[in-house]
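Dear colleague,

Thank you for sharing your sequence with our group. We've completed the structure prediction you requested, and as agreed, I am returning the results in plain text so they can be pasted directly into your records. Please verify that the sequence below matches your submission; if there's any discrepancy, let me know and we will rerun it promptly.
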Amino acid sequence: MGPLDGVRVIELAHIMAGPCCGLMLADMGADVIKLEKAPAGDDSRRFLPPDIDGESAAFMMMNRNKRGIVVDLKTEDGKQVLSRLLAKADVVIENYRKGTMERLGLGYESLKKTNPGLIYCEISGFGRTGPYAERGGFDLIAQGMSGLMSITGEAPGRPPIKCGAPMADITAGILGAMGVLAAYIERAKTGKGQRVDTSLFEAGIVHTYWQSAIAMASGTSPGPMGSAHPLNAPYEAFETSDGWITLGAANQANWLKLLDLIAAPELGEDPRFKDNHDRITHRFELAGALAPIFLTRTSDEWLSRLEAAGVPAGPVLDVAEMHRDPQTLAREMVTEVPHTKLGLVKTLGAPVKFSATPGGVTHGAPLLGEHTREVLSEYSYHDKEIDLLINNGTVIAL
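Please find the predicted C-alpha cells below.
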C-alpha cells in the first residue's frame, strides 16, 4: 500500500508522457485505470520489436501497475462509459490534442460541475496556452525547440544531437505527477480540484537551468561540451586503458585530492588550473593534461584509487551493465512482476522509496481489455449491460 492508496486515476493517455505520469502515481499506490482506444489500444502496443511472446516490451514497461480497459469513444455508449468513470475519479490524465475532450463533452469545465474535486492533468506538446497550443508535439521536436539539442553533443560545429533517452517525454510525465500531487494537497485543504497543465516543451526547458543562467548573464548561448560541465572542472568522462570512467573533482578540495592521487603537483602550480574559474577557462587544456594519465590504468584500478581518496568517480555502464549493478539491485530498480500471459517479467522499479507506505511495483501491464469487465462492474454496470457493450463493439474485454 503506497501513500496514494485509495486515489482513483483515469489515464486517457498513450505512448509515453501521459503514461509516465500515470506510472509515477501507480508506483505510489494509486489505482490507475488506463482507458485505451478501440480496437487496437495504445500505439505503443505496436512498438515491435522488442517483444516477449508478442507482447510489446515498450508497452509493458510504461504500463505495469495499471488496470486496462478498452472503450470506443466514437460511440455515444462509449462516451457514457467514460463519463461515468470520470464522475467518480480523483484524477484524470490526458494527452489528446487541444479541444478533443471538449468535443466529447468531457472537458474540464464540464466535468468540474459534477465532480468539483477533480484534478485534471493535461500533458501536451506545448501547453494549452500560447501560439503553439494547437500543435502536436513529440519528444524530438521538444528537445530541438527547448534548446536541449543545442547543448548536447561532442563540441560546437557538429550536427545537433538529442539526448539518448526521451528526456522531454519522461520529464513531462514526472512534472505532471508533481503537479497532480500539489493539486491533491490543495484539494485536501479546500475540497476543490483544478487543472494541471504541462508540456514536453517546458519539460525540455527545465533541463537548461545552468545553460539558461549562462545565456541570461552573458548574452551568449553555450554550446555542446561532450560530457563536461559548463560551470565546474574537471567534471567529465576520461578514457582508461580498458574503458571509460566519469570524474567529479570539481570543487577545490577534490581537485587537490586528485592531484595527490595522480602525483601531479605541477598541475596545481599551473596558473591555468589554480581555481575553478581558471580550470573552466582552460577546460580543454586541463582535459588534455589529465587524459594521458588516466590511460595508464584500468577503469577498476582508477575507481578503486579514487574511491579510497574520496574523489567522486564512477564507471560508464551500458544499460545491461546498469541492470546488473549491485546498487541498482539493492535499490530494487530492477524487479520482476507477474504478467497475466507471460508469468514473471522484468521491469524497472519505483524510483521513490517511502518508509511507512512503500508502494512499489506489484503487477505487470494489462493485456488489451484485461480489466474492462472488472472495472465496469465496479461502476455499477450489470453483467447483461457489459455483455451488450461488448457485443456492440463499445468496449473490448477478455
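Summary note from our side: The domain at 244-315 is CATH 3.30.1540.10 (formyl-coa transferase, domain 3).

Kind regards,
the structure core
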